[in-house]
Target: Isoprenylcysteine carboxyl methyltransferase
Amino acid sequence: MINGISFLLLVIFIILQRFIELFVAKSNEKWMKQQGAVEFGEKHYKYMVLLHSMFFVSLLVETFVLKRGTSSLWPLFISLFCFAQMLRIWVIISLGRFWNTKILVLANAKIVRRGPYRFLKHPNYLVVAIEMAAIPMLFSSYYTAIIFTGLNILMLMIRIPIEEKALKSLTEYEETFRDCHRFIPKIVK
Model:
């Protein structure tokens, strides 16, 4: 069973992970812009950052103020969280310098179709979706899980079309991912 100290350690781990990711993203952004990359979706990006920040605030408040305890299904939720972390690392390694938290597109760049991108168009968004449900559920923070899963869906309904339109306009994205789904893995060719 996970206690309050374990909860705080996990949250600190996740927040530190996010700061490391932002550092990597900033480095990749600088490199991509030097190569001539174009940024898309600037208007919604600040709201996405706010969404992710408020997720942690909500998680902390709900868990401590409402005195939530560890879910009896904690092995399931911690397993989902660990799966998401492994998938996140696989995504970042697969995209290399092209991985970012912003929508940056380099004209005529070869679309990455290795790693989890062999099976899905948007595995990074799948990672976030799993986390926004599994982390709060691990600590019985149902309101946070429901509210932020819903808000994340709304954000992705804005972000994914912008990203796909940008990729289609400057790369061979559509042709490369013709046989691939957004979130449902295609295992058999």
Summary: The chain is about 65% helix and 5% strand. Strands lie at 38-40, 103-105.
